[in-house]
Write a structure and sequence with these properties.
With about 280 residues, this protein is of the alpha/beta class. The chain contains eleven helices and nine strands. Strands 1-2-3-4-5-6-7-8 form an eight-stranded parallel beta barrel, surrounded by eight helices. Helix 3 links the parallel strand 2 and strand 3.
């Protein structure tokens, strides 16, 4: 299993600004653990996400000299992508393409057609710059707006991404709507149908449903999982206030159940857990 740690998702919705030095220190702690990828920040409007307005400053303070971990930054439009592409330290750009037209408009102020056009342009820019675009299919398991959702709709979005040459697609359970009954069939259908795409799972969950969701994605063939230490963060639109990010420690527990070695430095992970408890203690 490939683990993507998402402190950006954990921090972005917090109302109190986390000082830049604190963010930088925490991310440097995470870089020592050995995650495949660190979703560390985003180049979006400071008005949209005030918490991450210092992403460039944080990036400048990261120690990448002895870590295998690659950096991923979220962008919401071409302007953000162009900014992110100026930083050679970043390997991945992530863009949220929503299966729900309502959420696309709310999240990036675009129509679905406009968002797909941006995906095409970003993918081309990433290819020229030696970077990789990660496309998140937001609201990938349903939405609260009454917009149409079905496995066929998700497949149609994936077909369009495959036609563009997109190589990584993360199905995103934005509001915690997924169940084992929807997760396994979706991955089981998509993974063999699109062998050129690496599929990931960005699952939001309550503390009691995490195991069934991870197991369902794993059973469907998914081997790329997003998590956040402590399960911090998630979408504020979720119906259950306990719905948050998939806790990284639970992903590690599941890997152990499968007899898999995470390959992480567990002493460094313990230090990261302690750091997370400090960073998020007052939020």
């Amino acid at each position: 299993m490939k683990l993507i740690e998402c402190p950006r998702d954990a921090m972005q919705g917090l109302p109190d600004f986390i000082p830049t030095a604190t963010k930088t220190e925490y991310l440097n702690t995470l870089l020592q653990v050995g995650f495949d990828t660190l979703d560390f920040g985003s180049f979006v409007s400071p008005k949209a996400i005030p918490q991450l307005r210092d992403t460039a400053e944080v990036l400048a303070g990261l120690d990448l000299s002895s870590t295998p971990t690659k950096l991923l930054a979220i962008v919401a439009n071409l302007r953000g992508a162009e900014t992110a592409l100026q930083h050679p330290e970043i390997s991945y750009l992530g863009f949220p393409l929503s299966v729900s037209a309502t959420f696309q408009r709310r999240n990036t102020n675009q129509s679905t057609a406009e968002a797909l056009a941006d995906v095409a342009a970003m993918h081309e820019q990433c290819e020229r710059s030696g970077k990789t675009l990660v496309t998140y299919l937001s609201m990938g398991f349903g939405n609260p707006y009454g917009d149409a959702w079905s496995p066929e709709i998700v497949t149609d979005f994936t077909e369009q991404l495959a036609a563009l040459g997109v190589r990584i697609v993360a199905l995103s359970d934005t509001i915690g709507a997924s169940t084992a009954a929807t997760i396994t069939p979706l991955f089981s259908a998509l993974i063999p149908a699109f062998p050129a795409i690496e599929f990931g799972a960005h699952l939001h969950t309550t503390p009691t449903t995490w195991h069934e969701k991870v197991a369902a994605a794993y059973e469907g063939g998914c081997r790329r999982f997003d998590g956040a230490i402590g399960g911090i963060g998630g979408c504020p639109m979720a119906a259950d206030e306990l719905t948050g990010n998939m806790a990284t420690e639970n992903l590690l527990r599941f890997m152990a159940e499968q007899g898999q070695d995470s390959g992480l430095d567990m002493a460094a992970f313990a230090r990261a857990q302690a750091a997370a408890a400090s960073v998020f203690a007052f939020h």
